[in-house]
Amino acid sequence: MCTGKCSKFIGIALYPFSVICMLANAFLYFPGWSVEYAELAGEKLTTEVTTLLGIVGGGILVLIPAIQIHTTGRKGFCGNRCGMFLSILCAAIGLTGSLFCLCMSVVAIHRGPVCGYYNTNTTLSTTGNDTLIWGRPLQDPLPQYNNQNYIYHKDTWSICVEPEDVVEFNLILFSILLGSSSFEVILCFIQLLNGLFGVICGTCNKKDDMDYKDMDKDSSVYDDKDTASICEKKVAICE
């Protein structure tokens, strides 16, 4: 595949992943599908959400470079070695943003969500006299399960009382961010290599133009020979 066509494919492929990251990050502001938690984001939202890992990291920092990378694959000003060099810089920016999103997603999944829970030291059950506090009750290893992570023990998720089903909510959306940013990392890294080859070897846009010209030339030559052959046959018949 030509470097120009490869850039065009990578640019187009990055669009949906960047949009998915932005949407997933936006939804994370509304756990339990309620707006009240977004109003107290610093206290009642997972820290990784407020870092804008999907909106900025896997979103804007990937979407803008994707536009330039896509343009590099088209004929015109950017479809040359200069455009390929710029695509390397853009791919590096996209790689940085997507890696940030990837790492923060892993951290968020490992530490669990911020939620309202009852501070009971000996059991996960609650009583009416306990005070609801906000924090990350699932971020520490579980001693009752040989210090394993909460992900493997769904029965511990019930410790989060508010927002409703916040553990599942965070796991699903952060997993989407993790998957999308992983594809972004792969595509941006491929574009780094592709852009390097493009700077050294150039794009295929000029080659395609020359191929079309050669085809037209061959076609015209073939038409002239074919016409001459027909005329010779007609002359032979008349004689």
From TrEMBL:
Pfam families reported in the protein's UniProt record: L6_membrane
InterPro entries: L6_membrane
Keyword annotations of the record: Membrane, Transmembrane, Transmembrane helix
GO cellular component terms attached to this protein's record: membrane
Record localization: Membrane
Sequence intervals crossing the membrane: 12-30, 50-70, 82-109, 171-200
Topological category with respect to the lipid bilayer: Multi-pass membrane protein
Keyword Transmembrane: yes
Entry keyword annotation includes ATP-binding: no
Domain of life per record: Eukaryota
PANTHER family attached to this UniProt entry: SI:CH211-137I24.10, TRANSMEMBRANE 4 L6 FAMILY MEMBER 1-RELATED
Family that this chain belongs to: Belongs to the L6 tetraspanin family.
Protein name: Transmembrane 4 L6 family member 5-like
Provenance organism: Engystomops pustulosus (Tungara frog)
